[in-house]
Amino acid sequence: MRGADMTSTADITEDTIRSALRPVLDPATGQGIVATGQLAEVAVSEAGHVRLRIDLISPGFPLRAELEAAVRDAPAALSPAGLELQWGLRVPHKPARQDKNRLPTVKTIIAVAAGKGGVGKSTVSVNVALALHAMGAKVGILDADIYGPSIPKMLGTPERQPGTDAEGGGIAPALYRGIAVMSVDYFVEPGAAVIWRGPMIHKLLTQFLEDVRWGELDYLVVDLPPGTGDAQLSLAQLIPLNGSIIVTTPQEVALIDVRKAVNMFGKLEVPVLGVAENMSFYRCPACGHHDEIFGAGGGKRLAEEIGAPLLAQIPIEPAIAFGGEAGTPVVETNPQSPHAQAFFTLAAQAAMRASQRSATGPRRSSLLRTVD
Ligand SMILES: Nc1ncnc2c1ncn2[C@@H]1O[C@H](COP(=O)(O)OP(=O)(O)OP(=O)(O)O)[C@@H](O)[C@H]1O
Ligand SMILES: [Mg+2]
Predict the structure, then answer these.
(1) Which residues of the chain are under the pLDDT cut of 50?
(2) What ligand 1 atom has the least distance to the C-alpha of 278?
(3) Whose CA is closest to atom 14 on ligand 1?
């Protein structure tokens, strides 16, 4: 049943289209796009040309082709004059429990974690945040690495330093190319050794959450310190962490520590959105040779073991390290490169899983498939 079977142009109205699209389900949530209001706009021209605007639950929605096919197969698509689809973005928001409701204007909080230092958490945090922003979301980064804050340096020159919020009081976060950022780095002397004890960390993070005017955000990316310490515990108590991205390198030594971090999140009831395997392989720019310097398959094994998807594999790439040093992250400077694309994939996969949980709760997560 396609095209020619449609009775006449006059039969096509907003109502007929809405009823025809009622059975179409969002492939990530299993919910009807009409029932949820994701079908945001229906316009029918006199000639019977139909234009729909559908809101996606996350930026760079990886199942968009699937959703589009379902819409085009629905009887509403039978307009002889054609169907135009426009895509919007409306990230779902599940309000937090009363005791954790410190960030009511932030829809999704994603923690970036790892068992040990130096595996690329901050690099992942920065590039994922920039990728989400580039794909249309409103994004902030909370640098929760109190001992080794590195987010401001990785982002380079801000448009705005943090300061007093002129209107509502409180602290206005720093701003980098549209991304709101807060870090302890703004408040300590360069090179100063700071000793933070548990209660001080808790107080500082509470301030970052309660006094900073984050504004309306779709995603707040939280760069955690390595391991399973005070900052992780405090954050999980203070705010609803919608999910974590676990960063690992492929070698087994690192995996032992990662498992500890995963167990901690399990105890804190923070869902693991998936695993990001960083420094997965090196592709020689001269000869194209693919070398798995740090071993192979660690991310996949870990993902299988913890029952979470492998979200992306990020190559070892000097430009990634250089971009971090120079304040020019690869997602901004060379977005089409394969290494930047790996961050876009990671961002889109993680965001979809977080949004999917906000929309439906944990039970339907089995609907989502893993990336090979
Ligand atoms: N895929 C990559 N290719 C090349 N270099 C990378 C890659 N990922 C990270 N790096 C580099 O590795 C170093 C460690 O990365 P990063 O600071 O992001 O790790 P981290 O886990 O946040 O470390 P820490 O535990 O100290 O906070 C940095 O110099 C960074 O530029
Ligand atoms: Mg770091």
Answers:
(1) 1-6, 364-367, 369-372
(2) 1
(3) 118
